[in-house]
Design a protein that fits this description.
single chain, binds N,N,N-trimethyl-histidine, alpha/beta, seven-stranded mixed β-sheet, about 325 residues, four-stranded mixed β-sheet
């Protein structure tokens, strides 16, 4: 008798996206946004503490050192929307700098309820900051926030942590144009971008020896098992982090270590995987220091500031709508 549990409630969008990705011709793939369930969000927080993963510390250092200057260069916003707030720890510096100038409304936008709850706990108690969380996809959440503010009130969008790097370059351009469409002159965007560095340093950041990133990646299969009643055997998969030099990105894959079948009842799907075949789970694109300037122009913004960390090549880029 099978001990597999078929969950009572299956999210139809989740099931459809998992099905589409796993049946894709050529390379199978899974959307990276689904890495962040409750377990995945905690594993990501642990990744941020790893000595090999310098990205989050660089991001935080820049905000710590330059929050005052960053804020002084934007038309003072009352409203701050953050795309993918995560735990909200990095954002504190910016909110504190803004709150010195008056009451600030902060809208974390997150599809992960676990991350949103952590963020509300972290930042919900700040003086002069009112927090209203949106459990929505980025653009839907941004639309809701943009609709709330009144004429003359400026909005600042935070897109930190190089999450933009999860988009392929053309998709990133399109996404940034859509963000721009929700904004009006005087609004701003603070964008974090991880910069290209030595390949071995980059690979180690996504393949740490303690195996935290491997657990983060494998948890996606465990999540699908939990939510769609599937029977992925996690021990039959291996975490891979590959530097794709042509596309200038790290790719995370899960490699099948044997020929195997997986049943995914919640998505009405049975798949056969070959030994060595991979499921692509995430891309993290890396940038040159001058890339953000060009990206800003293509999306209809002007870049008015850039701050680069001196320990780990990472840039905060401030864009304004003129
Ligand atoms: C949160 C998307 C920026 O791509 O570096 C960390 C996620 N994946 N280790 C990144 C991640 C593996 C991270 N972002």
């Amino acid at each position: 008798m099978s001990t597999q549990l078929i969950p009572q409630v299956v999210s139809p969008e989740f099931a459809a996206e998992i099905r589409d990705g796993l049946t894709k011709a050529g390379q199978r793939e899974l959307p990276s946004k689904y890495l962040y369930d409750e377990v995945g969000s905690e594993l990501f927080e642990a990744i941020c503490l790893l000595p090999e993963y310098g990205l989050t510390r660089a991001d935080t250092r820049l905000l710590q050192r330059h929050a005052g200057e960053i804020v002084s260069r934007m038309p003072l916003p009352m409203h701050v929307a953050e795309l993918g707030s995560g735990s909200g720890k990095k954002t504190r510096k910016i909110l504190e700098a803004l709150a010195k100038h008056g009451r600030t409304f902060y809208y974390p936008i997150e599809i992960s309820p676990a991350a949103l709850a952590a963020c509300e706990k972290e930042l919900g108690q700040l003086d002069f900051v009112s927090l209203v969380g949106y459990e929505k996809p980025y653009l839907e959440g941004l639309r809701a926030v943009a609709a709330r503010r009144e004429a003359g009130e400026h909005l600042c969008v935070l897109f930190l942590g190089s999450t933009i790097g999860n988009f392929d370059r053309p998709a990133a351009d399109e996404f940034l144009r859509k963000v721009r469409e929700e904004l009006v002159p005087g609004d701003s965007l603070l964008l974090g971008t991880d910069l290209e560095k030595d390949a071995d340093v980059q690979i180690l950041a996504y393949d740490d020896p303690a195996g935290v990133t491997a657990a983060f990646n494998l948890n996606l299969l465990a999540r699908i098992n939990r939510e769609l009643g599937s029977d992925f055997q996690l021990r039959n998969f291996r975490h891979l982090a590959i530097w794709n030099a042509e596309e200038r990105r790290i790719e995370m894959h899960l490699q099948s270590t044997c020929r195997q079948r997986v049943n995914i009842p919640g998505a009405s799907l049975l798949i056969r995987l070959e030994e060595g075949e991979t499921i692509w789970t995430e891309s993290s694109h890396k940038y040159g220091a001058s890339d953000p300037l060009e990206m800003a122009k293509r999306a209809g913004f002007s870049q008015t500031g850039q701050w680069i960390d001196d320990e780990w090549a990472f840039a905060q880029n401030l864009w304004i709508v003129e």
